[in-house]
Write a structure and sequence with these properties.
single chain, about 325 residues, mainly alpha, two-stranded antiparallel ribbon, 16 helices
Length: about 325
């Protein structure tokens, strides 16, 4: 639904319940052992964070890509709602999530807000404006009072996973049904970087469980993991650029496709996509961490040049 909910809450709903229960025991015992005072639960807006601004500068290379992701997420979700018959202005949605992020930051929040994905699926299940309002109240009040963490710890993973699977299937189906059939290949292509990102997440959990790190890999395994890192980092922007470029090629809009490849080339040079760093951080184009960004930027540049050359050739041939 189009409602700004904290993305970190979604991550907790996916990962926390089973791990919390197995790792630290009964959540009621946790609450009794560490009872936070009411005054520490409810956080009021403050400008004290301004004093910590110098300490945040080293983390901008990680924070900025997340900010870009939330902007793209807001636009994507607005389009998803439009496909379900509900028109919203993307500008209003982006302004709402920006205002919510600023307000949350003044209260100590560290994660940007973005609309919750799955509008068509929730609408198909009968959700309306009341569902969105109730969600905001439950998440907001629950998080402020500390009740939400207890609720998340109580909910079994098996009860939540089927809901998320259903929503994922609805979103995937909409991606194909709401686009012209000729763009099916472009939609399919967008899943490639997303799949790489999912494998990276699962591999990270596996390495943590085994008590090792990706640096322990060698040979083809190390090369394969590095390929996943490069493909998965910045996957949302990568998926948008790849899908848009292929759709433009299918529609014979080669000038647009060349422009998108040029943007991808510039994004590769600073790590906005295909960052070879395991944390996906940005870097200056003149100080890359390896030769990979330069190679990828060059490859995208060649694709852009080919598209523009093909356009020029077609113009000479067409009377």
């Amino acid at each position: 639904m189009i409602a700004p909910n904290p993305p970190d809450v979604r991550c907790h709903l996916l990962a926390v319940p089973l791990r919390v229960y197995r790792g630290v025991g009964d959540p009621f015992l946790i609450a009794e052992r560490f009872p936070p005072p009411w005054g520490e639960r409810v956080v009021l807006p403050t400008l004290a964070w301004l004093d910590a601004m110098p300490q945040t500068l080293p983390y901008l290379s990680i924070a900025l890509p997340f900010a870009l992701v939330t902007i793209i997420g807001g636009i994507d979700n607005t389009e998803s709602a439009a496909a379900a018959g509900d028109e919203y202005r993307a500008r209003d949605i982006l302004l709402t999530e920006a205002a919510a992020t600023v307000l949350a930051g003044c209260c100590g929040g560290v994660v940007q807000n973005t609309p919750y994905i799955g509008h068509p699926a929730y609408k198909a299940m009968g959700a309306r404006a009341g569902y969105t309002l109730a969600t905001g109240l439950v998440i907001g009040v629950g998080a402020a009072t500390g009740v939400l963490s207890l609720l998340v710890a109580l909910l079994p993973e098996a009860a939540i996973a089927p809901i998320l699977v259903f929503i994922g299937l609805e979103i995937t189906a909409q991606g194909f049904l709401a686009t012209p059939p000729r763009h099916g290949a472009a939609v399919a292509l967008t899943f490639v970087p997303v799949a790489a990102a999912v494998v990276l997440i699962e591999a990270g959990s596996l390495f943590a469980a085994l008590g090792t790190a990706p640096t322990a890999l060698g040979g083809d395994a190390a090369l394969g993991y590095q390929a996943l890192v490069v493909l998965g980092n910045g996957f949302i922007l990568t998926a948008v650029l790849w899908g848009w470029a292929l759709a433009a090629i299918i529609d014979h809009q080669l000038v647009l496709a060349g422009l998108l490849f040029a943007i991808a080339s510039a994004a590769s040079l600073c790590g906005a996509i295909h960052s070879p760093l395991t944390n996906g951080a940005l870097f200056w184009p003149w100080a890359p961490p390896s030769a990979v960004p330069g190679h990828l930027a060059g490859a995208y540049g060649v694709l852009a040049a080919l598209c523009w050359l093909a356009t020029a050739r077609n113009r000479r041939i067409t009377p």
